[in-house]
């Protein structure tokens, strides 16, 4: 009887099975190999077709996704341009009113309350009743007691070893949990301290605000300036627009002068459309033409100017302001010299009665500006400088006469213990020397004991130029973040470009963290001594000695 051969050929991908039979083993295997090769080729073709299908679907999905993205970006660009075109109209329609009470700070402490770290669980205590601690006796163990006792001892030793291991693990876990709890309690205390400090600072700021409010209705000049600075700070503009302005008010004439820093053309969004090019698999951005951008930029500047006047009159419910003068300034790089420059490119004076008759929702900004006798080049984008209609008087009634201190100190003088007025005048002298070489002017302010402005620098430098606030802290303890927040608030309220805080002590980490992304400079005791040395003066800072001297002075005052 001849032999009979068969083999089974399978292909998982195609889900095929075939039984090949024959009387000759060689021919059976040859036919099986041919079937396998045929099925493998069929599988490869199927895989290639699937790959191409997925690639087509992927391209279609990518095309749809990128097409939708291009449409969305185009819509966003159109909205951005439309918002610039209707900046004034939208503000007038919105008609937001910022009352004194609205300007109060109602914000809560933003730092999240710390959560306790995960507590580790105590593992189950080993028990002698567990099978692993029970000896397994056999017949010989029953017969020979020594063998039984040996196994008992081994089981007991294993239990003691595991129990000791468990005790050590519990000890480590309890220690870690204790540290977690202690750290959490420490974090809570720190968080609560920060919260109370924030609330204290917020309430203090609100108290000052209410004091300004009370004086405002008594026609206090500085309170009137403060109020309108707060109003301007609330106006919403793109982040690329500078929020910088200086105000001056004349009580006798009712004229409010505003030096307002306007955005550069680069701060205006000029993206018009986004297209997706399928063949190149890339986006193409289409921008406004140069002439269209120039026209939009000029319109934005006119609108900002008119809106500024509008907001002043709208919020003047007590008729303090009879006339508003807006001088529009820009800071730019002079293409002729490559240096930074500042120029006034528009100026306008608008009388109250005349301005309030205008329907700002229907006017053309440039035409309205010209009708109000505004001054400026016909092409504002050219940044051609013009003389302002009126300049701000930098004389502040807070300024007082200063006196020299620096020449009377030497390396034995502990400036951490000197009279606080002498200290403020010393700081004024130092910064007068620091800025004097570029024509800077330093004024010291009237003592207020409220951590407000101690000195003001007027720096005429075209690059650094502007108003700089200096606060002097003759402290013997670490300066906390509250003082730095106070300085920043003063910088904003005064419309200054920078704030400098000088102390005889040092600053806490929270103070440095708060200041790092703001126009603030923190000078500690070492920095102060270096600055003194730079200008030819020597002194010392001895905090321990200063504390003793100040404590004794305080004791003597109480006795007196």
List keywords for this structure.
560 residues; alpha+beta; 4 domains; six-stranded mixed β-sheet; five-stranded mixed β-sheet; 13 helices
Which residue ranges are poorly predicted, with pLDDT under 50 across at least 5 consecutive positions? 447-452
Secondary structure: number of strands: 15
How far apart the termini lie comes to: 136 Å
Helix count from the secondary structure assignment: 13
Tell me what you see in this structure:
The termini are far apart. The longest helix has 72 residues, at 145-216. The model is unreliable at 447-452 (pLDDT under 50). The chain has helices at residues 25-85, 87-94, 139-143, 145-216, 221-234, 290-315, 352-356, 365-371, 420-436, 481-494, 509-515, 525-534, 543-559; strands spanning 5-11, 16-22, 245-250, 255-261, 271-277, 282-287, 323-333, 340-351, 375-376, 399-400, 441-445, 455-459, 466-473, 498-503, 520-523. A six-stranded mixed sheet has the order 10-11-12-13-14-15, with helices on both faces. It is 47% helix and 17% strand. The radius of gyration is 40 Å and the shape is flat. The protein has four domains: 5-73; 86-104 and 118-216, no CATH class; 219-382, no CATH class; 399-559, 3-Layer(aba) Sandwich (Trna Endonuclease, Chain: A, domain 1), CATH 3.40.1350.10. It contains 13 helices and 15 strands. Helix 2 packs parallel to helix 6 and helix 4 (145-216) packs across helix 5. It is an alpha+beta fold and 560 residues long.
């Amino acid at each position: 009887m001849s032999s009979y051969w068969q083999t089974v050929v399978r292909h998982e991908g195609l889900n095929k099975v075939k039984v090949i039979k024959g009387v000759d083993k060689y021919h059976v295997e040859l036919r099986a190999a041919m079937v396998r090769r045929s099925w493998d080729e069929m599988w490869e073709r199927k895989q290639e077709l699937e790959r191409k299908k997925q690639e087509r679907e992927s391209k279609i999905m990518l095309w749809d996704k990128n097409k939708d993205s291009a449409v969305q970006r185009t819509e966003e660009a159109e909205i951005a341009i439309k918002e610039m075109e209707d900046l004034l109209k939208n503000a007038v329609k919105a008609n937001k009113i910022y009352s004194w009470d609205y300007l109060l700070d109602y914000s809560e402490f933003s730092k999240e309350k710390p959560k306790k770290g995960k507590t580790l669980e105590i593992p189950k205590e080993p028990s002698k009743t567990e099978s692993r601690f029970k000896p397994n006796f056999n017949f010989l163990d029953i017969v020979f007691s020594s063998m039984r006792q040996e196994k008992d001892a081994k089981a007991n030793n294993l239990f003691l070893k595991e129990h000791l291991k468990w005790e050590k693990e519990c000890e480590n876990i309890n220690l870690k949990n204790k540290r977690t709890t202690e750290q959490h309690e420490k974090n809570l205390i720190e968080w609560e301290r920060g919260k109370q400090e924030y609330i204290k600072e917020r309430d203090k700021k609100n108290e000052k605000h209410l004091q300004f409010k009370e004086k405002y209705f008594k026609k206090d000049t500085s309170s009137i300036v403060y109020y309108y600075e707060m109003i301007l700070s609330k106006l919403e503009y793109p982040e690329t627009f500078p929020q910088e302005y200086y105000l001056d008010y004349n009580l006798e004439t009712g004229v409010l002068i505003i030096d307002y820093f306007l955005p550069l053309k680069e701060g205006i969004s000029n993206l018009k459309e986004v297209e997706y090019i399928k063949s190149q698999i890339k986006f193409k951005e289409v921008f406004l033409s140069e002439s269209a951008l120039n026209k939009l930029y000029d319109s934005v500047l006119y609108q900002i100017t008119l809106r500024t006047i509008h907001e002043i009159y709208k919020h003047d419910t007590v008729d303090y302001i009879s006339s508003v003068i807006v001088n529009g300034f820009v800071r730019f790089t002079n293409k002729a010299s490559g240096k930074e420059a500042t120029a006034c490119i528009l100026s306008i004076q608008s009388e109250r009665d005349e301005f309030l008759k205008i329907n700002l929702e229907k006017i053309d900004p440039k035409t309205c500006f010209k009708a109000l006798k505004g001054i400026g080049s016909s092409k504002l984008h050219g940044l051609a400088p013009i003389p302002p209609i009126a300049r701000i008087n930098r004389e502040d009634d807070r300024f007082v006469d200063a006196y020299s201190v620096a020449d009377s100190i030497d390396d034995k003088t502990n400036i951490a213990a000197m009279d606080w007025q002498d200290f403020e005048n010393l700081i004024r002298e130092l910064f007068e020397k620091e800025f004097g070489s570029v024509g800077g002017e330093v004024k010291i302010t009237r003592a207020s004991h409220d951590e407000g402005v101690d000195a003001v620098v007027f720096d005429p430098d075209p690059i650094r130029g502007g108003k700089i606030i200096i606060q002097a802290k003759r402290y013997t303890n670490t300066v906390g973040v509250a003082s730095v927040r106070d300085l920043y608030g003063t910088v904003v309220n005064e419309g200054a470009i920078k704030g400098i805080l000088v102390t005889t002590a040092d600053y806490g980490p929270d103070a440095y963290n708060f200041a790092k992304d703001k126009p603030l400079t923190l000078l500690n005791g070492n920095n102060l001594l270096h600055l003194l040395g730079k200008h030819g003066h020597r002194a010392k800072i001895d905090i321990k000695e200063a504390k003793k001297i100040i404590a004794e002075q305080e004791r003597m005052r109480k006795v007196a």
